């Protein structure tokens, strides 16, 4: 037999339960915030290390390919400063040359943006170096492996058809090193269009019928200061075919992006030669 409290007893039960709940959640909340505000001490580090503890937020967008989103990675002021560095130096973007191919042989309709390569040491303000250092902390990949920034502008209707950043040796020949990963920093927001697309995400659309122009699959809308990072290679070092990606046509507005290609080996002194070759309107892979 279930004993039910009389009316007066029933009225007395509720306040006690309410007070107990308030006490419980107060204790839990205090414990949570005291832990979240607790300073994390850094370990001693060597000469090539860093004294800071990273708290850069990110979201996993996909595991196939491994793709990550970094919200508010750069400030509005940093983005606008980078645009100002590049806007008077832009040239038509070119394609990497396949074996035996010349610039005249490439299909320029595949990539219709304009751009310029700028190495961090060329920027006296130190903004590019600061962004590079933050990329290294976020990606856990050393700056020695970085190509110079490729600053790109996409105007109305401009796009980049789907492609892979890693080089297939059968098509491009032996490389000094391979493009392990790509970091894209959005320097501007786009009103409509201009998404970064991954049509083969999770193995979709890989039936041989994709025409490399349709804007389908995983799509990331550009937002000023946000960034995405993705791997071009699988953990075993082979090309991840699902890393195929492109830039959807800009429908309204203008798109600015800073691309940082990250190699699997130190880029060393080749970075200077790379900038000179690219900015003389010839793309060397």
UniProtKB/TrEMBL annotation:
The chain crosses the membrane at residues 12-33. Its EC number is 1.14.11.2. SMART domains: P4Hc. Gene3D superfamilies: q2cbj1_9rhob like domain. Keywords: Dioxygenase, Endoplasmic reticulum, Glycoprotein, Iron, Membrane, Metal-binding, Oxidoreductase, Signal-anchor, Transmembrane, Transmembrane helix. It is found in: Endoplasmic reticulum membrane. Residues 144-264 form the Fe2OG dioxygenase domain. InterPro entries: Oxoglu/Fe-dep_dioxygenase_dom, P4HA-like, Pro_4_hyd_alph, Pro_4_hyd_alph_FE2OG_OXY. It catalyses: L-prolyl-[collagen] + 2-oxoglutarate + O2 = trans-4-hydroxy-L-prolyl-[collagen] + succinate + CO2. GO terms for cellular component: endoplasmic reticulum membrane. One of its GO terms (molecular function) is iron ion binding. Belongs to the P4HA family. PANTHER family: PROLYL 4-HYDROXYLASE ALPHA SUBUNIT (PTHR10869), TRANSMEMBRANE PROLYL 4-HYDROXYLASE (PTHR10869:SF246). This is procollagen-proline 4-dioxygenase. It comes from Thlaspi arvense.
